[in-house]
Design brief:
- The protein is α+β, with helices and mostly antiparallel strands.
- The chain has a domain of 76 residues.
- It contains 2 helices and 7 strands.
- The strands form 2 sheets. Strands 3, 4, 5, 6 and 7 form a 5-stranded antiparallel sheet that branches.
- Strand 1 and strand 2 form a beta hairpin.
- The chain starts with a strand and ends in an 8-residue tail after the last strand.
Length: 112
């Protein structure tokens, strides 16, 4: 059961701790989007808002986003590096993944 605190008149109860916790955690998730890394490649990072879901599909989501980015340029996705946080996911060490990649000519593309 969630903790509730009675309102000033005692008629209405409202959740306090769960609302404060939800409001605090809602702003903790981050996603960088595709960012050029200055070496002819790109990087993307993503962090979960909490440690509850674990690393889950964060890395797969990033790879899919990178693949779509390269396809939009008529190229193929090539993963060059990836990093992930390690459990336990406590005290700000939330699940986070980062990938570095390049968009390369398609293997089936004619050479110039």
């Amino acid at each position: 059961m969630l903790p509730f605190v009675a309102a000033g008149n005692g008629d209405v109860a409202r959740p306090t701790i769960p609302l404060l916790l939800a409001a605090t955690l809602a702003g903790c998730a981050s996603h960088s989007g595709v960012v050029p890394n200055g070496e002819g490649g790109y990087s993307i990072s993503k962090q979960a808002a909490t440690g509850f879901p674990g690393l889950g599909n964060i890395k797969a989501d990033l790879m899919q986003e990178a693949n779509q980015y390269c396809l939009s340029q008529g190229r193929e996705f090539l993963l060059t590096n990836s990093t992930e946080t390690q459990p336990p996911y406590l005290l700000g060490n939330y699940p986070r993944a980062e990938i570095n990649f390049r968009c390369v000519e398609s293997a089936g593309a004619p050479t110039r």
